[in-house]
Amino acid sequence: MSKLSATRRPTTGGTPGEAGFTLLELLVVLAILGLLAAIVGPQVIRYLGSSRTQTAHVQAKNIAAALELYRLDAGRYPTAEEGLPALVKAPGGNPAWNGPYIGDAGALNDPWGKPYLFKVPGDHGEIDVYSYGSDSAPGGTGEAKDVGNW
Questions:
Q1: Which of 4, 48, 97, 132 is deepest in the core (most CB within 10 A)?
Q2: Which alpha helices (DSSP H) does 1-150 contain, by range?
């Protein structure tokens, strides 16, 4: 038997090259894909929601660390009027500013696009950096829960 004839497939009728899938086979594949999407889809959406919350927690800790560096240089935390933008751009009347303490002003926004809040003295420590989550309201559960540096 030659190598060429060993790789040939027998035809079952019709003209050569008309091989394909039947409608039933295609419907079975579509049903399997639909089941996979129904099972995997909610898991992926839940994972994306929790990753935003985890990102907000890490970012809040980074901002708190930058605030500590600011305090070491300036001898105090930024005032409520100066706010967190004092970590990026020098506030007026503070010659001890040695920043920027955070390279990008966009890092001062949470994963939902809202600015982080801070409180001195904090309820959970010397300083609290926090976000109200996806609902922008205190409290909540899941992706809407409050996230902070505590």
A1: 132
A2: 3-6, 23-74
